[in-house]
Amino acid sequence: MVLSPEGSGTEASALYHISVGVNVWMPSMTVTTVRRGSSEAGPIVASLELGISSTPATVAIGQVCRPLNEVFFRKSTASSSRLYFVGDGRAIKWKMGPKSWQAHCGPTLLATFFPTPPRKLKVEPAGHQLLDHLMVSLIILMREHLTPLAGMRGDSAQLFNYSPHYNYREE
């Protein structure tokens, strides 16, 4: 999958190439790789390893690999917001509504995502410097959003090593 600016019309203008594979040792784990540019030859921006496993989900950005539960969480079971820690002391707070999700850093709006097809990400000028982190956090959010909840399918959500349904922390 490629992410391109709206109206660019060509893959050559793609900002990111996103691919998904499996961990050969644990096929129930997916490895999502985000690369800069339009092809698999572009430099790696991030790699996420998420799935059904007893080992923790991980997020690698650049040379830094961290467990997902140190990067991404929600404040409480009732919270519709998610927090993604950039790693430099800043946090991106995603406020998730039924029709749009907004990313903020403090009071500043960074981006708005429309999660229903046709999906669209509108990045504000203030969000450009955090675009890599916006993409990574959005991939995690969509994975969570599309994963069945435990109440709907037995205890299936507990199988997944990336479910922030069970990872709470104060802002």
- The low-confidence parts are 150-154
Q: Given the structure, what is the number of helices?
A: 1
The strand count comes to 12
- Global structural class: mainly beta
Name the beta content range: 35-45%
**Which oligomeric form is depicted?**
single chain
Q: From N to C, what is the helix and strand string?
A: EEEEEEEEEEEEH
Given the C-alpha coordinates, what overall shape results? globular
Helix content: under 10%
- How many independent structural domains? 1
Radius of gyration, in Å, reads 16 Å
Biggest sheet descriptor: 6 strands, antiparallel
- What is the mean pLDDT? 83
Instruction: Please give the alpha-carbon distance between the first and last residues.
Output: 33 Å
Strand order of the largest sheet: 1-2-3-4-5-6
Task: Give a verbal description of the structure.
The protein has 171 residues and is mostly beta strands. The chain has one domain (2-166). Helices cover 9% and strands 39% of the residues. It has 1 helix and 12 strands. It has one helix at residues 131-146; strands at residues 2-3, 16-23, 26-36, 44-51, 58-61, 64-67, 72-73, 81-85, 91-96, 101-105, 108-114, 120-123. The strands form 2 sheets. It has a 6-stranded antiparallel beta sheet, with no helix packed on it. The longest helix is centred in the C-terminal third of the chain and has 16 residues, at 131-146. The radius of gyration is 16 Å and the shape is globular. The model is unreliable at 150-154 (pLDDT under 50).
